[in-house]
C-alpha cells in the first residue's frame, strides 16, 4: 500500500464531466489499495474571472480581501469532487486550506507555506476516506486566508506530499509531461522520462508552463518525487526527482528559450574598482532583476558592460542607466529588445567536455551570430537575434540527438 498525493489542475476539473473523469481516476487509485490525498485547482478560467471581478470593483483591492475572493474557486471543485466520489460509493471528505490547516506567512497573494498539520489527514486516511484538499490557499498565524501565487496549487500538492512523506506526488495536467523543448516549435520534441530538480529549475521557460517553479524548489528541498502526467491518458509522464547516474549519461536534456529579455550595453566604462557596483546597485534597488552580465577585458583602461533585463523593465532600466552613464564617464549606451536567449541544459555537462563547442558550431553553421554567452555548471546560454529563435532551437535540438526518432521513441 502506498500513500499517493494527486493534484489536478484547472483544465482537468474544468467541467462537471471532467470532474467525473477525475473521480474515476482517484477511485481507481484507491481501489488499487492506496491511500489517496487529492489536491485540486479551481475550474479552468475561474481564478481569472475572480481576479477580474476584484479589478472591476476597486482600483486597489485590499490584499486580504483579494485572497478571500480568489481562494473561492477551489472551494467549488473540492466539494464537487468529494460529492462525486460519495455518489460512487466512496468515503470522501473535502477540506479548505484553513481547515487542515496549511499554515503560511502573511504575504497575501504570494504566501509561503510554513507548516502543514497532518493530524486530520492521517485520521481520515486511517478510516478509509479519500481526502480532497483545496490547493493554492492557506491561513496565516492571525487567521487570515492567504493564497500562494498563481499556479500555486502545484506547491500545495508538493507541500502536502512532503508533510505526509507520500510515496509519490502525481501532478495531472493537460500535457503528458515535460518535453525536450517546446513541442509547438519543434514537433519532433520528445517527452523526457526523468529529469533532475536542477535541470527542471533551469528549464524554467519550458517547465514553468508545466509546473509552478516554486513547487520544484520545494520538492528539491524535501526530496519529493513529482510525476507530471496527463489526466486524459494512462501513459506515464515525466518524473522530476533527485539526480541519478543515468541522467549523467545524457549530455543535454533540453533546449529552452526566452524571448522576454532585452540587452543593454554601457560603452567605454572606466576599468576601476566600484564601477559595477555603481551600475548594478541602482538597478537592484529599483527591483530590476538582471540576468546575464558580460564585462570585457579593458582596452586603454575602458571596457564595455553588457547585461540583460526583463523586457518589461527595459525602459525603467534605461532611465536609470542614463543617469549613471555620465557620472561614471561612460561614452555611450546601446540597447536591443529584439533578442532571444537560447539555452542547452543538462547535468551531463558536469562530466563531459565539448558540449559548448557543439552548440557554437551548430549555430555557426546556420550563420547565427552569438551576441552574448553565459554558462553555469549545467547550462550554456547564447543570446541571438530574436528572428533566429526557432531556427536555433530546432538545429540544437537535432544536434544533441533529442529528436523523437533518434531517441528511439
Ligand atoms: N487556481 C489558481 C490559479 O489559477 C491556482 C492553480 O491553478 O494552481 O492560479
Ligand atoms: Mg496550474
What do these coordinates show?
This protein has helices spanning 16-31, 46-57, 63-70, 72-87, 119-126, 153-164, 197-202, 204-207, 213-222, 245-249, 275-285, 314-327, 355-365, 389-399; strands at residues 3-8, 35-40, 92-95, 102-104, 113-116, 130-134, 137-139, 145-147, 168-173, 194-196, 226-230, 238-241, 254-258, 261-270, 293-295, 302-310, 332-336, 339-345, 372-376, 379-385. The protein is of the alpha/beta class. The protein has a domain at 3-174: Acetylglutamate kinase-like (Carbamate kinase, 3-Layer(aba) Sandwich), CATH 3.40.1160.10. The strands form five sheets. It has an eight-stranded mixed sheet with strand order 3-6-2-1-9-11-12-10, sandwiched between helices. Strands 13-18-20-19 form a four-stranded antiparallel sheet. Strands 15-16-14-17 form a four-stranded antiparallel sheet, covered by helices on one side. It is globular, with a radius of gyration of 24 Å. The structure holds aspartic acid and magnesium ion. The site of aspartic acid has 13 residues, from helix 6.
Question: Summary?
Answer:
The protein has 409 residues and is an alpha/beta fold. The chain has helices spanning 16-31, 46-57, 63-70, 72-87, 119-126, 153-164, 197-202, 204-207, 213-222, 245-249, 275-285, 314-327, 355-365, 389-399, and strands spanning 3-8, 35-40, 92-95, 102-104, 113-116, 130-134, 137-139, 145-147, 168-173, 194-196, 226-230, 238-241, 254-258, 261-270, 293-295, 302-310, 332-336, 339-345, 372-376, 379-385.
Amino acid at each position: 500500500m502506498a500513500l499517493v498525493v494527486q493534484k489536478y489542475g484547472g483544465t482537468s476539473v474544468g467541467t462537471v464531466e471532467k470532474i467525473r473523469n477525475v473521480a474515476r481516476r482517484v477511485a481507481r487509485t484507491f481501489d488499487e489499495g492506496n491511500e489517496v490525498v487529492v489536491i485540486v485547482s479551481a475550474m479552468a478560467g475561474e481564478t481569472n474571472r475572480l481576479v477580474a471581478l476584484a479589478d472591476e470593483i476597486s482600483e486597489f483591492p485590499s490584499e486580504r480581501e483579494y485572497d478571500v475572493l480568489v481562494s473561492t474557486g477551489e472551494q467549488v471543485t473540492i466539494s464537487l469532487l468529494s460529492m462525486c466520489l460519495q455518489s460512487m460509493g466512496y468515503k470522501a471528505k473535502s477540506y479548505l486550506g484553513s481547515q487542515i490547516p496549511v499554515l503560511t506567512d502573511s504575504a497575501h497573494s504570494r504566501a509561503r507555506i510554513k507548516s502543514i498539520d497532518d493530524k486530520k489527514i492521517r485520521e481520515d486516511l486511517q478510516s478509509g476516506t479519500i481526502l480532497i484538499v483545496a490547493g493554492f490557499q492557506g491561513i496565516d498565524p492571525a487567521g487570515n486566508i492567504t493564497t500562494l501565487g498563481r499556479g500555486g496549487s502545484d506547491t500545495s500538492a508538493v507541500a502536502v506530499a512532503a508533510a505526509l512523506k507520500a510515496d509519490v506526488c502525481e501532478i495531472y495536467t493537460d500535457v503528458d509531461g515535460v518535453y525536450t523543448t517546446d513541442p509547438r516549435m519543434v514537433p519532433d520534441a520528445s517527452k523526457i522520462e526523468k529529469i533532475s530538480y536542477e535541470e527542471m529549475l533551469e528549464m524554467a521557460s519550458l517547465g514553468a508552463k508545466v509546473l509552478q517553479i516554486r513547487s520544484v524548489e520545494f520538492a528539491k528541498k524535501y526530496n519529493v518525487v513529482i510525476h507530471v502526467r496527463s489526466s486524459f491518458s494512462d501513459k506515464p509522464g515525466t518524473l522530476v526527482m533527485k539526480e541519478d547516474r543515468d541522467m549523467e549519461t545524457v549530455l543535454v536534456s533540453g533546449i529552452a528559450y526566452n524571448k522576454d529579455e532585452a540587452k543593454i550595453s554601457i560603452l567605454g566604462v572606466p576599468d576601476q574598482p566600484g564601477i559595477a557596483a555603481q551600475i548594478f546597485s541602482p538597478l537592484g534597488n529599483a527591483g530590476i532583476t538582471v540576468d546575464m552580465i558580460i564585462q570585457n577585458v579593458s582596452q586603454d583602461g575602458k571596457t564595455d558592460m553588457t547585461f540583460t533585463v526583463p523586457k518589461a523593465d527595459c525602459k525603467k532600466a534605461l532611465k536609470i542607466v542614463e543617469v549613471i552613464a555620465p557620472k561614471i564617464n561612460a561614452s555611450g549606451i546601446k540597447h536591443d529588445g529584439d533578442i532571444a536567449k537560447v539555452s542547452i541544459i543538462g547535468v551531463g555537462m558536469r562530466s563531459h567536455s565539448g558540449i559548448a563547442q557543439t552548440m557554437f558550431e551548430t549555430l555557426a553553421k546556420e550563420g547565427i551570430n552569438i551576441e552574448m554567452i553565459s554558462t553555469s555548471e549545467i547550462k550554456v546560454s547564447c543570446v541571438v537575434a530574436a528572428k533566429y529563435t526557432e531556427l536555433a532551437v530546432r538545429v540544437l535540438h537535432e544536434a544533441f540527438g533529442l529528436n523523437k526518432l533518434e531517441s528511439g521513441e
